[in-house]
Write a structure and sequence with these properties.
The chain is 33% helix and 29% strand. By secondary structure, the protein is α+β, with helices and mostly antiparallel strands. The protein has one domain (6-123): Gcn5-related N-acetyltransferase (GNAT) (Aminopeptidase). The chain has a seven-stranded mixed β-sheet with strand order 1-2-3-4-5-7-6, with helices on both faces. Strand 2 (59-65) and strand 3 form a beta hairpin. Helix 1 (15-28) packs antiparallel against helix 2 (36-45) and helix 1 (15-28) crosses helix 3. The longest helix is centred in the first third of the chain and has 14 residues, at 15-28.
């Protein structure tokens, strides 16, 4: 029997749990591709307050297994442009990775109004997640297939 996960919009009361999910994922999964210093610098951005701030200008979603938040992701405008959007903060708890939750998050974000209005969607992709996004149909922006100065790949999809 296939497990079903529930997707819903982020609520401010989720901030502590989402912050802990992101930080755990960064420290366990992303640490395979980034230095401890890089990870800890990222961790600073994902305090509960930082998550609430991000949710204030994006459409932020969480994926739940019962009462436990196991994944999250957001979509928002790309530099305030009406016809371009970006995906952000897509994380799945390490123990839930490989179970289709990342795909469920992408599908949710790709049915959101910010996606549907855009002709181009960009993802600042970590080294860790690049292959996953490529599998989801995103390509290297301008053909650049190496990480930039922020150690991120810039991926995009056109509609």
């Amino acid at each position: 029997m296939t497990k079903t996960y529930h997707v819903r919009r982020f609520q401010p009361s989720d901030a502590d749990e989402v912050s802990a999910l992101i930080i755990k994922t960064l420290r366990i999964t992303n640490s395979k591709d980034y230095s401890a210093e890089y990870i800890e610098n990222d961790v600073k951005q994902f305090s509960p307050e930082g998550v609430i701030k991000r949710a204030g200008w994006t459409h932020f979603y969480v994926v739940c297994d019962g009462d436990i938040i196991v994944g999250c992701g957001a979509i928002g405008p790309y530099w305030d442009k009406e016809d371009e959007s970006s995906l952000f903060n897509i994380f799945v708890l390490p123990e839930y990775q490989g179970k289709g939750i990342g795909r469920k998050i992408i599908e949710t974000l790709e049915s959101d109004a910010y996606f549907l209005r855009a002709r181009r969607i960009e993802i600042p992709a970590s080294i860790t997640a690049c292959a996953f996004y490529r599998k989801m149909g995103y390509t290297y922006k301008d053909g650049v297939d190496v990480p930039d100065e922020e150690q991120l790949f810039r991926l995009e999809k056109f509609r």
